[in-house]
Design goal:
By secondary structure, this protein is an alpha/beta fold. It contains ten helices and 13 strands. The structure holds NADPH dihydro-nicotinamide-adenine-dinucleotide phosphate and ketopantoate. Ketopantoate binds next to α5. Belongs to the ketopantoate reductase family.
Length: 310
Amino acid sequence: MCVSQQPRPSAQRIAIVGLGGIGGVVAASVVHAGHHDVVACVRRPLERLTAERPDGTIVVPLRSLADPAAATPVDWVLLCTKAHETASAAPWLARLCGPGTRVAVLQNGIHQARRVGPFAGAARVVPTVVYYNGERLAADRVRLRHAGPHDLAMADDADGRALAALLAGTTLRLLVTPELDTLAWRKLLLNVTANPITALTLQRQAVLRRDDVKALCLAVLQEAVAVGRADGAALAVDEAPRAFDYLMNYPPEAGTSMYYDRLAGRGFEVEALTGAVVAAGERHGVPTPLNRAFLALLRAISDAATNAAA
Ligand SMILES: NC(=O)C1=CN([C@@H]2O[C@H](COP(=O)(O)OP(=O)(O)OC[C@H]3O[C@@H](n4cnc5c(N)ncnc54)[C@H](OP(=O)(O)O)[C@@H]3O)[C@@H](O)[C@H]2O)C=CC1
Ligand SMILES: CC(C)(CO)C(=O)C(=O)O
């Protein structure tokens, strides 16, 4: 693995689809770096964006489009919707993607290319692993929290290196790695632990520091690690405690994307996270009773929120 120091390409046209916690942070970072032509593809137009970052708050002007019909092909799409919202972004992708376009997927979950490929036409899909915590405070305001040494990882191949070069002028800490598939599984381990527990308890990550909750985390992680190994991920012998230790890098006041959805009364990104572990467990004959219990509870809350919003 190596920390990226890619040379910056010439100015590129970048469209950011989904301006929530993750999209808002990356949009503000790229606009602030000032090198590329950025447009945000949103449901409600806005003219500026504020990002509260550990190194200070920045306010950037933002060009936004609210109608996919007004979009034209770009060099890069940064897809920052939730995984279950990918299909709803299809009209954007249809307009933004040409044969030279690359679609970087800033979403949680494994098999991103499989998920996004059907909507990307002739464009190439570039998977990533997102480590930073992004909290959307208002439609035009986000907060960035770092955890661990990197904010974003991409594969050590031509497309991954091109993405690292694209973001090289930003303050995001990038990792170019030959092990992205295993890192995606490692990241999923964090998500099937922290996301359900914060969303179900309606408490931020401080709750993970309770002894009883830590014991539950480790048991959930052991199950998911067994599934990940059966699925081909090169997970370590002590992967479960290592994943728990990684979670301790997040500040206790950080929430999770699922916790933020619960606060906002939105449906959850459940099938791509806990649902993916349970489904892979079924495929490989690995039992997942704790993850199954989480899945039933998360689906019940998520469905009620989705039905109430309909
Ligand atoms: N938040 C975090 O700390 C982390 C999140 N992730 C992952 O990153 C991804 C994004 O998460 P996050 O930023 O938290 O999610 P958010 O819910 O905060 O943001 C998603 C955004 O996508 C927008 N959106 C959804 N559908 C469409 C559409 N069809 N057209 C235009 N905009 C659309 C939403 O708009 P609207 O407001 O109008 O609904 C919203 O602004 C997820 O996969 C998540 O798991 C990964 C690491 C950390
Ligand atoms: C690891 C974690 C919890 C960091 O925010 C995350 O990926 C999420 O919130 O979905």
